[in-house]
Amino acid sequence: MSDKLKKTVNKRTQDDKFKGQENRLNETPSRKVNKPPGKKSSTSHQEVGGSSNAPSRQAGLAALARVIGNRNNLPNCSLVAQHPFVEANISKNDASVSKHQRSEEYPAEKGVFFTCPFLGTEILTKEEWKQKLTIFLNDLSKVEKSLASCLMIHSLNQSSESMKCIETLCTILQNIISNPLEEKFKKIRITNKVFQEKVFKTIGAVEFLESIGFVKQTMNSNYEENEDYYYVYPNNIPDCNHLEQMLDLLCNTEPITLELYRNIKILTPSEVLEKIEFPDEFFVRTPDEIKREQIRKTENLRDSQRLKTKSMREKEKNNKSLNYRYSLIRIRLPDGLYLQGTFGIYERLCVVKEFVRECIDDSIGSFKLTTAFGNHLTDADNEKTLDDLNLAPAVILIFISTTPYSANRSILKPRLLSNIK
């Protein structure tokens, strides 16, 4: 459980005094929305809402235990960690996953794979993880609807969509907190354009409103004869402390994020010569569009050799960066083997170096990497992204040890050598 989410848990039970001003739904709320960085890879489970009775807590434990598969990443909250039922299910799940995955392979040309430390040790595609995460959050919503709905908003929508939704929901809650006796702030017409565009279509948003007390009702308009649907907050005297806690929960919940699976492969020289067919996930645009562009570039190779201004080179580089999301990095080792891993194009070079360090024997000292054209990737390049260094969509780097080592054995760790076919 990350420190940031531990703070969220504490905030959930604290009396956080807040004073807001009246806002319209299409105005930016005065309260700051603390959206966590999208690339951060941790999240947490926290106990929120009113007190649960014993059967509800047992049901929650069962639901969580079915989908959380890794003890080391188990959220450290009283709802989950206190019960032995969870430990038994985690151990069983871990054994099942380990046995299953040892028999599986994940060819890079078949797709891009991810792990989710929060949900378990499985290796799945992004779409498969989204389905699994949806099931998890639906189970969680049966006992902790407010937390589950916040996780849905942050985790199951595009970042830009979730931010717009959060801002609008903050405006709704702020208006009730600041004007607890004003009935006009306690009802939202579902056909309202802003509500439809920013809230209603966002996964988890309606569930969040329901978790804090809003109910769906039909009401007659003062100016129209036809009935219309509204979400209505029925409490005449709102519990402002509870609404403030829900506001903090909404703003500070971290998303459940995925980690790109490196998909480590040890290749022989003959395997490296095989043509790489990139999976669809590598492309931002459609594969057909990219392949047509590659053919066009090949046909116009002579034109690409002409002298270009700096602005022309920058324009070509920027256009290329829009084509790919991932890069297949192959590092040629001194014994002729190749170490292969998958990276995001916005990951830094230092991450690639850390990857190499984790794969080579501990006895190997310092090393450096160069491109196949002899260009040295120095320490000054460590903070640059693979996109900045033009290391996409596939590239071969050369490993050069700068300290003596025994040439009679491979520099790879033994566990990786067993993966050679």
Automatic annotation (TrEMBL):
Start and end residues of each stretch annotated as Disordered: 1-56
Cellular component, GO annotation: cytoplasm
Listed SUPFAM superfamilies: PUG domain-like (SSF143503), Ubiquitin-like (SSF54236)
SMART domains: PUG (SM00580), UBX (SM00166)
Biased composition (Basic and acidic residues): 1-25
Extent of Polar residues compositional bias: 40-56
InterPro entries referenced in this protein's UniProt entry, alphabetically: PUB-like_dom_sf, PUB_domain, Ubiquitin-like_domsf, UBX_dom
Name of protein: UBX domain-containing protein
Organism: Rhodnius prolixus (Triatomid bug)
Lineage summary: Eukaryota, Metazoa, Ecdysozoa, Arthropoda, Hexapoda
